[in-house]
Amino acid sequence: QANNAYTRDQWFHSIIWKKNIFKYRNILKRSTRPEVILKELKGLVDFATTTPLQDECVTHVPIEIVSELLVEEDLWSSRASSEELISIIAPLLDNNPPTPEMCHFFSRHCVSHPRSPIVADKLTPIAHRILKHNVDFSKSQHMRHFVQDYIRALYSQNAGEVVIQKFVSSVHGPGSGCPHPRVLPNLVAVCLAAIFSNFEERRMLARLNETPNSEKDLGEGTEETIHEKELQCYVTVFLYASEYDDWRPVLAQLLQPIPFPSDALAHEPFIRRFRPVMERIGTDARCSSHQMVQAVRKGKEGWFHVYCPSSPVCTDDGQTWGHMLKTLLHCCCRCKWFLSQLMKKQLGACLLLALRDHSAAQEALCLMLEWELIEQEDQKMQLVSTLQSTASGRDNYAALCQRQLHLRELQQKGGPRKLTLPSRSTDADIARLLSCGSFGNLEVLSLAFTHVTSACAEQLIKLPSLKYLNLWATQFGDAGLLMISEHLHKLQVLNLCETPVSDKGIAALSSMTNLRKLNLNSTRLSAQTFEILKQKLPALQEFDVRYTEAW
């Protein structure tokens, strides 16, 4: 009665499949000897993996049967029977997630026999599949517990750190980019949950008062050693995950809120072991990585504060913090806001590292003096004394004094009121032009159709009387916009037409309350940012947002 040969064959194989499943189910229900159960299970798995029947129940039903058998834990208490059972049922999980009973059984094997060869041979593909395909561990906590115990079993083997490194490398893949976007978030979720559990167990252990003092002290010492090994195991996963360039920005974003318990942040061994991870993130050249060491929002501390020399858990005399500071100052945080926050909260750390001849700390102190962020004379003298205490500091302070002298000459009254640079002018041309003569009266500057970039902002902020700035069709970007918004408060007309600025830089214009005309034609302006900008710039009379999202 079948319409074609394929349908006829599927009917035939479905009858054979149902007959065999019925047979295996009855035999396995009646059997009590492990060797008989293992033999029948092997036949069941071989039949399920070789049948031509194409239906999802081909593997689902055998997995249900195996899960029912795993409830009887006494049958699989020996290492030999447990290893043989895992070897038999592993093919069923090539394309299917393990059930809670299976995960519990696998976890028990990892805890009881962590050095078993089956852990690396048979359980690794199962852990890989969970990390690649799991969507939400809150709905499948049994899988998370299994992966935690599996990682801990890997670490307990000989050369455990090398084994962990190979495991992280295998889940990432051989290429420069991991093809599975869920792997890293899942791996981080597993390790974070394990670290939380680790410190929760420590707190419970500290509250135990039932045992006598001698036994209690001995037990606590043993438990403490176990907890330290477990903690080091999961920190090692973070350490090797941070080595991959494609993972580092995502890892930085996941770690920015400092998702660890307060006990961990006060635990010196954890902070010391975790330091290389944050140093790699904090010194990464990409803004998407190193910016994540700062606080996720105002009023909350970030990793930049955790590794500050004044922090009680700082163990490297501020070297990590100094490297982070250098990266931030040379990229996206060379601005008044960052330096003012640094002055308020971490000025002592800057002074300490400057005394120890750290170049980034000395540069930060010079910028505080140059931009007049220090109001009290005593503090100014303290900064100057600190800079003059080392040879490199004296050089930096001498260069600052020279810049200040040039700045006073530059800002002397006189010079032209209007200035237009020819096309093809570069950042070097602007610096060369402003290095001679006085421009204290300059109010109108046109750099339209030149080759200037955000780097010229360091020259533009030296023009205190500037009211009109035309940057049409230049490569002036967000970094330059952030800088001029903090210094050129007299600016009334700004033309950014056809520049690569985006919401990140445009939002900073809200501090330029004297703006009357603003041209954002053909920029990456969003409608939401434009609405916020209009609310914060009451003096704005004319604006051009054609060919943007806000148009």
UniProtKB/TrEMBL annotation:
Family matches, as PANTHER family: C-MAF-INDUCING PROTEIN, LEUCINE-RICH REPEAT-CONTAINING PROTEIN 73
Organism, as annotated: Cryptotermes secundus
Cited Gene3D superfamilies: Ribonuclease Inhibitor
Entry superkingdom: Eukaryota
Stretches that traverse the bilayer: none
Protein name (database record): C-Maf-inducing protein PH domain-containing protein
A family per Pfam: PH_21
Domain C-Maf-inducing protein PH: residue ranges: 1-29
